[in-house]
Design brief:
By secondary structure, this protein is an alpha/beta fold. The strands form two sheets. It has a six-stranded parallel β-sheet with strand order 1-9-6-4-2-3, sandwiched between helices. Strands 5-8-7 form a three-stranded mixed β-sheet. A hairpin with a 3-residue loop joins β7 and β8. The longest helix has 23 residues.
Length: about 375
Amino acid sequence: MTPFTFNTTPSLRMGAGLARQLGEIVKPICGENILFVTDPGMVANGLVGPVVNTLRAAGLRVTIFDQVQADPPEAIILQAADMARHVSGVVGFGGGSSLDVAKLAALLAASGQPLAEAYGIGNAKGPRLPLVLVPTTSGTGSEVTPISIVTTGASEKMGVVSPLILPDVAVLDPELTLGLPAHVTAATGIDAMVHAIEAYASANPNNNPVSRALAVEALRLMGRVLQRAVDTPGNIEARSDMMLGSMLAGQAFANSPVAAVHALAYPIGGHYKVPHGLSNALVLPHVLGFNAEVAPLAYAELLPHVFPQVSDTGVGDAAVKFVEGMAALSRACGLPQNLRDVGIEKEALPMLACDAMNQTRLLVNNPRPVDEAAALAIYEAAW
């Protein structure tokens, strides 16, 4: 067996209603002076108030930082880190952006390291503050990934990748996802499935049997319930399976990293502010089809787990049907299917292809090499 490394969050707690016990969970980990990192939408939809009240009822002093933006820029990270220098621990509450900001706030506040020096793989330096993460979507898996994504400059994204930013505890309460709109449920769900697909097929040297097993289970869970979660948003069983699947997919890609789907999605989000999950969904079938031409086996192996009702006549046929199945699932969930549907002009495609080439950290993991011409062809197919 090829040697590999597998890291994940050391403690996971999952169950409907756990958010009501958050004070009891957080206090022994983070101390009594907490920075609560979230975004304005979480405040507006009423999720933050009751959770903060449970923290205060447990005797904690809570400072709220609620200015997180989607695809957070460096300025937001630095503001949160500055506030974190005056607390004993950090709680991240929300979608992937809030969790990513909380991770870096906890790191930078304790270590004093400049953010610019932490970018890349293994460049972050500790220590960090105690950290608890509470996801409110089933998509990013950020609660179990050693990765935070930051928007630098106008549109480019960079990542801090280090086990140091794994939280001490992740608290998964599917009740927090019951109010998600259908389009958010669909986009974040496809995002989580992309994590598992790319982890399973990753060309990274650390692609390993643990990640592949987690990816299979994640896709089995989410493939059977995503449509149900979109169509019946109050279905707690579907929401639970989606949250568990998202977490398992996060564990998988945290150790067997994602590839060209994400690399081509990032410029779409950076330039056009398209939500990350939707950006992934828009390029997903076209990247998978590109890969399947030369590396069909991984997708063929995934077909019976995600679409057990579909029969095939061999590896190539199974890979094609898997790609078609993912495209059909995206359509059935009501997501836009073309780049032009989200306001991207055809004239912008060469710019997107050029920018995608900056995502070398991701492109090296793709099962098939992607150069600028190939990226442009994929964008054109997606347009």
